[in-house]
Amino acid sequence: MPMETLNSEQLIVVANRLPLEPIYADEDQNSSPVSWRLAPGGLVSALESILRTRPSIWVGAGDEVPEMDLGEMRLEAVSLDPHDSHGYYEGFSNTAIWPLYHSSVVNPEFHRNHFAAYKRVNQAFADRVISIAEVGATIWVHDYQLQLLPQLLRERRPDLVIGFFLHIPFPPSELFAQLPWRHSILQGLLGADLIGFQTHGDATNFRDSTQRLLGPNIDVGRVILSDRHAEIGVFPVGIDAAGFAEIAADPAVRERAIALRTELGDPKTLLLGVDRLDYTKGIDIRLKAFAEVLESGQLDPTETVFVQVAVPSREELSEYQNIRDEIELLVGRFNGSLSSLGATPIHYLRRGLEREELVALYLAADVMLVTPLRDGMNLVCKEYVASRNDDSGALILSEFTGAAAQLTDAWLVNPFDTLGLEEAICDVVLTDDEERRNRMHRMRKVVFNSDSSTWANDFLGTLHSIAVSADEAPEPKLVNLDESCLNLLAATPHLLVCCDYDGTLAPIVDDPSQAHPLKSAVDALRGLSLLPSTTVAVVSGRALSDVKALARLPSAVQLVGSHGAEIDHEFAPNLQQRRLLDQCIAASTDLSADVGGAHIEIKPGSVAIHVRRCTPADGKDLIERIVMGPGQFPGIVVQHGKKVIELSVVQAQKSDAVAAIRHRVGASMTLFIGDDVTDESVFTSLSDPDVGVKVGDGPTAAPWRVNAPQDVADLLIELSKQRERWFLSGHTNQ
Predict the structure, then answer these.
(1) Which of 39, 508, 616, 690 is deepest in the core (most CB within 10 A)?
(2) What domain range includes position 627?
(3) For residue 471, which phi and psi values (nearest 5 degrees)?
């Protein structure tokens, strides 16, 4: 969304720290800084260009605000009591929230005095923001240190437009529930108009925790509160890709890259890791995998070098001291056993690097290893990709980073699987240059198309749109009022057509076993599936076996069941999932036994409780009891639909299934048609020029709407005709 569409009112960014770092005359950082500069990091680089050119304020902790020319942006410092600052930051933020949100890689510590300090500091931030905020100002709060702040602002200043963005992961509900102050954190976040996350998984985890612990209504991507609603959105953070590419093109930087390889002994293969020195980054496991590759003889230690840059972080905390000591011991041990005169396989740098030196390292390295045990996004991998202007290089990337959902052409690994990591290292080294270049070329497109300015504009644009009253929001258009949309779909090189089943291809009926699709809709899908470069799929919440039996579609139509849990084959739960599912079935059956009209549908990985034939009061009461009963079982994913609630032992969304199909077939454009709440995950994940069509009434993220399944059939028929004419006119998929 262009920045011109944003609210012209005051913008206040609130973060833990001010966007500056001191410059000292020497290494003695106890002396006064001689000057200041903008701090490195994704948040600063993402927002700098926006904040410099419009009236804005950055609020962060600090004792002073240095004199600097920052254009239209000014800085406001929040002075903190040193004792409170320690309890808030080193204490609650980094011994409780950080490990808990990173899947408890180390055990979190919960101390009442730390949370008390956390509350006092969040209140201090609230006081400072309120003192400077104009009427109707937009407040953008960042990250885990300030999760109470949105509600503190909301209580005193309901006129404010408040956004919150979490830069780290949000944990599954069963982990989050361990937090003694879980209700306070959730209520704090729900004070925002828009709560943004890095991935769909994080957003789902937050939604599930909110529903289980607070019990509000969840409607599509929003939490319905008593007097308002809070939107939930996914906004993957990007980098200044063009800036990194520009640095990489600098002849001096390129010469430095060549010199670095010479200094390292001109190895045949140079591997690189760049991380904060943090226990979540998996540096120790990475070192062990590399050493094993050399010890086993798969790679020659005289021709292979690994450079690990570890930037010091939170060194006053014992867990960070422990990981630092362990890594340094590993480096010494492996170099002692693997080195030869003139050849040291591991080079370890425990310090930060200037950006130009870092980019030179990116250019020098043949392979980048980014293997955190858990990470919200990880921008280092994007920096490496952006720096490879010639499409050379290769990336090994942890599945447990937010970036893995975007950079699917990396060599994706499970960092806990040392053997798998070893195999990936060897595979990358042995892969031919053409394959590497093709992968890197595709990753660079992703990084440049979703850069830092795109992220900031998308978030602020969405926040602005939420602030617009419902009366001013446009209604979705009827498809049949605008032929341009159909024309665009018909003429796309590779089209993916996906439809929900019930309420979309088949009319809603009281007896689910009698929900047969309209013949005209089936004929249209068959016709589309026979066309070149056209992929057709039915994505349903039903069990895959039901979809197959009822739809009777040709084999060319891809069938997806159980909201994406069943693709191509029926989902087979493991023993633990089977036991959990049996418990849910038993509990749901007991709760439904005395409710007239209730119907239990058992699927391979879930149980659905239908209340369509119940009275409205009975149906609502049953759903509430299901949510507060088996819906609270650890490991259960709750999904709401039209007069149905589903308890699943697997986390699956239709959006993930559609994305997987699209990636597999290489579709250039997607049409998705659906009627249910569960279809909204797809609508919200679509991007221009994709087309989403909502069937029937109700709130939706889809820009287009039709009234009923017959309209869907008519739309598909017309699309089939136009696309066939397009191919007959001589067009082919290039």
Answers:
(1) 690
(2) 575-648
(3) -65, -30
Q: State yes or no: pLDDT of 29 exceeds 70.
A: no
Rounded Cα–Cα distance for residues 673 and 679 (Å): 8
Where do we find the tokens 């949100």?
101
**Domain for residue 460, yes or no?**
no
For every residue of 54-101, DSSP letters joined together read SSEEEEEE-S-------TTEEEEEE---HHHHHIIIIIIIIIIIHHHH
111: Cβ–Cβ under 8 A, 6 or more apart, which residues?
91, 92, 95, 96
**pLDDT over threshold 70, residue 732:** no
234, 266, 293 — which closes off a domain?
234
Q: Among candidates 209, 211, 203, which has minimal Cα distance to 235?
A: 203
Question: What's the pLDDT tens digit per position in 311-334?
Answer: 888 778 888 888 899 999 999 999
CA separation for the pair 158, 238 (Å, rounded): 31
Select the more confidently predicted residue: 47 or 321: 321
Q: What is the pLDDT of residues 640-684, one digit of tens each?
A: 777 788 888 877 778 888 988 998 888 999 999 998 877 888 888
Q: Is 6 left (phi over 0), alpha (psi -120 to 50) or beta?
A: beta
- pLDDT higher at 587 or 465: 587
Q: Are 513 and 599 in contact (CB under 8 A)?
A: no
Give the start-end residues of each E strand in 354-501. Answer: 367-370, 394-398, 411-413, 477-478, 495-499
Same domain, 28 and 61: yes
Among residues 576, 256, 211, 170, the alpha carbon closest in space to that of 219 is found at 211
Domain end (from 615, 648, 681): 648
Give, in degrees to the nearest 5, the angle at Cα 36 between 31 and 37: 140
Q: How many domains does the chain have?
A: 4
Q: Please spell the DSSP secondary structure of 588-612, one letter per residue.
A: HHHHHTTSTT-EEEE-SSEEEEE-T
Q: Answer yes or no: is 590 within a domain.
A: yes
CATH code, domain with 614? 3.30.70.1020
DSSP, collapsed to helix, strand or coil, labels residue 324 as helix
Instruction: Answer yes or no: do 163 and 253 share one domain.
Output: no
Judgement on whether residues 66 and 162 belong to the same structural domain of the protein: yes
Closest to 368 (Cα-Cα) out of 261, 291, 289, 272: 272
Instruction: Report pTM.
Output: 0.64
Written as six digits, the tokens of 324 are 């630092």
222 three-state secondary structure: strand
In the prediction, which pLDDT does 631 show? 84
Of residues 404, 406, 316, 375, the one with CA closest to residue 101: 375
Q: What is the largest CA-CA distance in the chain?
A: 83
